[in-house]
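Hey, I was hoping to borrow your eyes for a little while. No rush at all, and the record is pasted right below:
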Amino acid sequence: MSVAATLSPLAFAVTVHLLPPPPIPSNFTATLIDNQTVLLQHAGKINPLVIDTFTESDHNDLGFWHGPSSSLPAENGHGYVRLFPSDADQAYHTQLGPTSCFDMRSYGQMFLHLVFSGSTKFSISLNQHNKECDTGRGPFLETWDSVEAERYARGNDIYVPLNHFVIDHSRAVSFSFHGFFSRDSLTLYKVEIVPDVPSDFYVPPKLENGKLFLHCTRPNSFAFGIDDGLPHLVPDVMNILEEEKILVTFFVVGAGLRDKESNFSHVYKEMLEKGHQIAFHSDTHQKIEGLETIKAVDEEIVHNMETFQRLLGIQSRYFRPPYGTVGARTRQRLAAYIKEPYIINWSVDVEDWLWKDSNTPERQRDAFFRDVGRGGNLVVMHYLSPSTVQYFREFIRFVKSINVDIMRVDQCLEDPNGPPFDPRGSEVKERIAI
């Protein structure tokens, strides 16, 4: 696939130019809302659904759990919750059901309405359960879609068309508020689903964004997504891959490729020649969603792209957010530069970041087998420690022993632009620039 066909809305030789974010219209009138008359005619048949008025500390108005992630300070009051965020990974959830699937299809043409005060610098997500609607299976949240609160906020109200959350609405789980990129407090007073919006309220169009994957979609497939590594461990990793005859996906940071001492540009050129997939992992491995400005978000994406083009001669549609931190701005800005980007998290975490240099490195094995046992099939791991590399062959052989096919991430997601999968062991040698 050519670079020009991959990137949108511009192609480049070496330099990618930063794109401005879409402007917020100054005239917030209902006449600017596309097809609102049709939407409201359909939506009027369904009664509003009050989800949360924060009158109880441990459950919402539907009787189900709501609350912050363990690291998010929150003040519970009668009729509000006030959040004091300090990290983009922090989140507040309010559930639609008892952790099973909640069918929202009858509300499809209605609107999520929030009454709030304070910060608008966060993301709003609608979360989707796994196919079994089983909290014991992994991943528990199969995917989610996010919008940027600031785009939909006017005064103390936010209205978001539910069809702006592109997930399977028959398997909804919860709404969440996360991706904070300011330490300003946020106070929530009401979360509800309503059939219409005030006549003078402007609802912006849905922006293109990347689709988020935590799980392979191809039946009987399994993929290792390998992130950062250490140069001296490269030979061991490559020997294992060669001897086990499998292909994997490497998510690569731009700054590491530019480091001449690491020799990573040569390493990943060799990986490409052997048929492995090389994909984006940001420029400097920061929590992109937590960056203060759009310019800073864009630079992490664009410089990663520039480095791939200059040093490897390729581009990619695949991106793994550092630390798995992803919100609306990251997804939207990826889609501004890359047509239909794939955003890749995971359902199997080896937890090498936690255990690799501890007194119990074998906990990496425990984490792998735990997550695979729950149904996970898309891995995050690193080659930053000999202990992780030591277990890598065992992981591969276990997956083979249960008759599951190991392949690249693009193959396990059935990407028609990816190389065909050869179950006998890939002999793909040509470089595939996707």
Remarks:
- The first strand starts at residue 49 and ends at 52.
- The mean pLDDT is 90.
- The chain has twelve helices and 21 strands.
- The two ends are 6 Å apart (CA to CA).
